[in-house]
Amino acid sequence: MAEDKESAEAIVSEVHKKIRAAFDVFDHEFNKTVDVREIGTIIRSLGCFPNEGELHDVIAEIEEEEPTGYIRFEKFLPTMTKVLMERKFRPIPEDLMLQAFEVLDKQKKGHLELEELTKYMTQEGEPFTQEEMEEMLSAAMDPDKNLIFYKDFVSMMTVDDPR
Amino acid sequence: MGCGTSVTTDNKGRRLTTDQMAKKTPSPALAMKAAILIQRWYRRYIARLEMRQRYTWNIFQSIEYAGEQDQLQLSSFFSFMLDNFTQLNGNGPDLISHLLDPVVDPWSDRERQTMFEQITVPESYSGPHLTFPLTVSHTNALLSAFKEQQPLHGRYMLQLLHQTKKLLKQMPNVIHLSTPYAKEITICGDLHGRLDDLLLIFYKNGLPSAETPYVFNGDFVDRGKKSVEVIILLFAYQLLYPDHMTLNRGNHEDHIMNLRYGFTKEVMQKYKTHGRDILLLVQDVFSLLPIATVIDNKVLIVHGGISDMTDLYLLSSIERHKVKSALRLPRRSLNHLEVTRSSRQGQPESPRCRSRGQPESPRCRSRGQPESPRCRSRGQPERPRCRSRGQPESPRCRSRGQDHGNTPKKRRHLTRQGSSSSSSSSSLCSPRGSSRLTLCRCLSPSMLSPTDNLQVPFLDSFTALPVRQPPREELEWKQVVDLLWSDPKSQPGCSPNTFRGGGSYFGPDVTRRLLERHGMTLLIRSHECKQEGYEVCHDGQVITIFSASNYYEEGSNRGAYIKLGRELVPRFFQYQVSRNTRKLTLTQRVNVAEGSAVRAVQEKLFSHRSELMAAFQQYDTSNSGCISVSEWALVVESVVRLDLPWRTLRPRLARLAPDGSIDYQSCFEDMGPGQPIPQVTPNLAETLYRYRTDLEIIFNIMDKDHSGQISIEEFRQTWHLFSAHLGVEVDDRAIDELAKSIDFNKDGSIDFNEFLEAFRVVHKLDVKDQQQG
């Protein structure tokens, strides 16, 4: 039993260090705070896939009573540890992603038109900003045909993810 | 969508039934779910990219600042060599003092001018010919020539510099400009030898003229490959339009910086015959550049920043040309204090460690090695540095290795933590490392109050010396260094910029006070690379403007310039020079930049290989070749001394074993020597990898006739001095063997470029690529 406790502590310790490392990258002033706008990036880079709504909930939890625009590490650590230990916001497997695209591509063309994808991404769900849309298109779209071959896109994105 | 009776057509003009339409679009609920999923997944991908981009940036910055530490190391080495010139025979030291100490030109201006005019330009030269005073056709010719990679002949370079020097002598330290009616002044930041960026600015914004006045805020040279062309253009336009072209001095307009950061080398390479003369002239020109510009009495433009001691009135009155280099304290006449350096071995701690009666802190121990008398640490410091004298003991001074959790970040912003304000800013932080023997540094003015007594070594014991008030020359030097080296910080107060080794960190209160005192509203400065090319801080009172795009790597950052009109409201213009015609996606840019940064880190690891291996093995008690991630990160951080997100980088640097621990040998797999190296011990090899750049600089200096050769004796001596300075234990015999083995044709001289080539660390993949052709 003691062994289990030790290994549990070790795990938690590792998790803490991971969280700290990610936090530090954005701690520009080295005072253990980060801009609240970077929290999403930090959480996601730790392997979580929250949607925007879930993200806002987390932020609400870790913000100060009087929001300062900054998040302190002391508040971030326990919440984030819980998120990781409970495996919240699990990653989305590649085949599920493909299915999502296929839902939008009802005709099973194997690709989506520029207008189609833009409409969905900027009007449905938790809409993209124009910047986000442009960036996705620059990565996903075949510029000659204005088509998004989503199968390739999904594979490419998943490959890029070193784990 | 799904409306019972309506009919519509598809893209081929055929009518569709509702059935077909129903198939064409998904139900709203499903569409929303799918969309959210995609958005969620994509945002996560972008977040990862941002993370990589951010830490890539951190890597570049860390390495850059670490490099600046090295620079200080080198500078102190020069001082060391100078101070120990009796050890070197031959002309070595004369050369160095020639380059480092102010040179008094024996020839008058007129004589110089005549001498330059007598230089013949060969018939075969097809570049621009300059006559003075310059006209627009000359500057146009220069522009065309440089676009065609055609260089300017040495004679014209010398004449150009000579004329510039004459012009600058007439200028005050602080230039006052007014915004012309209905026109805007364009303000540009660091260019660092990037000709492409300068040409892009001229293209976008217009060539300098009465219609388009410019201010260039320093750092025209170093790092980039075309520093020569950049300053030729800047100086030429200044001669052409002295009222519409203003050049501020930057911290790289400094001949010692140039030694390390590439300008000196570039000049020597491009001008084989006249290089030396050009460099000497450039030294004068740089020190004559004005140090500040003021627009409409409201906007202050300096290269670095300010400190709480900055005094614009004083600055207007100093002799700015006397500050040749920020890295050499003006020599004080300390005749009665010229203590002989007796033995270097076995000496007690450096006076600096003791001078304020503080107990010797563990910091003074050199890394990983048993406590030795040297209080030296290699340039890369224990960042908690007590060297900032005149400061109360602050949390900074806690040594590394203790209390890891609380140790303040070992980075440049270190001083921001803890002590928020200090009573006096010390813009003098002497170059680190070494040479505890040089007294002039110990007696730096800012550190000591008049009543302090300084303990200095004298013939192996200590002598108490009364301290004099700092002479005016040093105060002036400090004021200039502050302007050229300081950086803004977000917390209030003013503290020494221990990271850079010179200048201060100044807080928003310092800015406010200075601007108020002089009735100004804005401080524009450069000196720091910013991802967007510019950044506003201190409540809008400070703008950083940086004009070298892709500074660290292709795609790393944009460049920018400011346009300022009568209303003094800055407008920003950004750009990015791109080698590709097709715009790189964010992904591609991050990949390129990250790849480059990771390589730089791999090189660092490789050049610290034996130390790292020794430390790894200490943790690897079972000799399995693996240690935990935590242990790995700990070791790497303490040996390489770069404050980087090691855990996040781990996947790029080392392989995991099946059980999740790290196979530490894998750190070194991808890198290797470029060529078969001469027979040297691994330790020596590593040292050579690490100090390759420094050695290159020194060899180049010693090689007075640019033959690429130095004598074996010079090689030996230099090496001995360098290793003594660094405190690296080098076997004399090993060096001798090395020297002899390099002297392939046995004629007593060494081709040092060949030698250095052998110690270039390369990425094995690159080597393979090259071999495959």
Automatic annotation (TrEMBL), chain A:
Name of one Pfam family that matches: EF-hand_7
Organism: Oncorhynchus tshawytscha
Gene Ontology molecular function, alphabetical: calcium ion binding
Protein name listed in UniProt: EF-hand domain-containing protein
Domain EF-hand: start-end pairs: 14-49, 92-127
SUPFAM superfamilies: EF-hand
Gene transcribed to yield this protein: EFCAB2
From TrEMBL, chain B:
Record region (Disordered): 1-23, 334-434
BP GO annotations: detection of stimulus involved in sensory perception
Biased composition range(s): Polar residues: 1-10
EC number: 3.1.3.16
GO molecular function: calcium ion binding; iron ion binding; manganese ion binding; protein serine/threonine phosphatase activity
Cofactor: Mn(2+); Mg(2+)
Domain EF-hand: 607-642, 690-725, 730-765
InterPro entries hit by this protein: Calcineurin-like_PHP (IPR004843), EF_Hand_1_Ca_BS (IPR018247), EF_hand_dom (IPR002048), Metallo-depent_PP-like (IPR029052), PPP_dom (IPR013235), PPP_phosphatase (IPR051134), Ser/Thr-Pase_EF-hand_contain (IPR012008), Ser/Thr-sp_prot-phosphatase (IPR006186)
CDD domains in the record: EFh, IQCD
Any Pfam family: EF-hand_7
Family annotation (SUPFAM superfamilies): Metallo-dependent phosphatases (SSF56300)
Ranges of Low complexity composition bias in the record: 419-434
Catalytic activity: O-phospho-L-seryl-[protein] + H2O = L-seryl-[protein] + phosphate; O-phospho-L-threonyl-[protein] + H2O = L-threonyl-[protein] + phosphate
Keyword annotations of the record: Calcium, Hydrolase, Magnesium, Manganese, Metal-binding, Protein phosphatase, Repeat
Family: Belongs to the PPP phosphatase family.
The protein, known as: Serine/threonine-protein phosphatase
Protein source organism: Oncorhynchus mykiss
Source species taxonomy: Eukaryota, Metazoa, Chordata, Craniata, Vertebrata
